[in-house]
Amino acid sequence: MSEPSPSPETQPEIPESPVSVEAPEAAPEAALSPLEAALADAAQWKDLAYRNAAELDNFRKRTTREAQETRSYANADLLRSLFPILDNFEMGLEAARAESEKSMIFMGMNMVHRQITDFLREQGVQEIEALGKPFDPNLHDAVSQEISTEAAEGTVLRVTRRGYKLKDRMLRAASVIVAGAPAPAETAPAA
C-alpha cells in the first residue's frame, strides 16, 4: 500500500532565504529598455575586446623582447668557459715574449691572440677597465690590498685576472689588488 502524498496544505513551509539571489547588475538592467540593455551589453563586450587586444599586444611585445634578449645573451656560458683558456693562452704569450719577441712562436701566438680578441669584440664582449680606476665592487673582485703612497686609497694597483662584460651584463669580475692608505706617522712626544 502506498502512502498518499501529502496535500499542499499539509506540506511544511520552507522559509525564504534572507539573502537575495539576484545578481547585482540585474536590477539596473531590468529598468532599462531592451535597446538600452543591448547597447550597454555591446559596450561591455567592446571594452572587453579592447582590453584583450591590448593584453595580446603587450604579450607579443614582451615575447619579442624576451626572445631578442635570449639571442643576445645565449653565448654567455660559452664565453665564460673561454676566459680561463684565454688567461692560460696569455700566460703562454708572455712566456714567449720573455724569450724573444722576434721568435716565430711569439709572432704566431700573438696573431692567434689578436684573432681571439677580435672574435670576442664581435660577440659584444668588452674588457672591464680596472687599472688605475677606483675600486668598484660591482665590477672588481679585490683579492688583496697593498699599502701605497703613489696611489689614492681604493685605487686599483694591479689586475690579477681580467674581467669581461657582454654588452651590459657582467660575465666575469676583474680580480684586482687595491691600494690601501699608509699607516699614520707617529709623532714623537715633545720633551
TrEMBL record:
Signal peptide: none
InterPro entries xref list: GrpE, GrpE_CC, GrpE_head
Residue stretches of biased makeup (Low complexity): 10-30
Matching SUPFAM superfamilies: Coiled-coil domain of nucleotide exchange factor GrpE, Head domain of nucleotide exchange factor GrpE
Record keywords: Chaperone, Cytoplasm, Stress response
Chaperone keyword on record: yes
Function: Participates actively in the response to hyperosmotic and heat shock by preventing the aggregation of stress-denatured proteins, in association with DnaK and GrpE. It is the nucleotide exchange factor for DnaK and may function as a thermosensor. Unfolded proteins bind initially to DnaJ; upon interaction with the DnaJ-bound protein, DnaK hydrolyzes its bound ATP, resulting in the formation of a stable complex. GrpE releases ADP from DnaK; ATP binding to DnaK triggers the release of the substrate protein, thus completing the reaction cycle.
Name recorded for this polypeptide: Protein GrpE
Gene it is expressed from: grpE
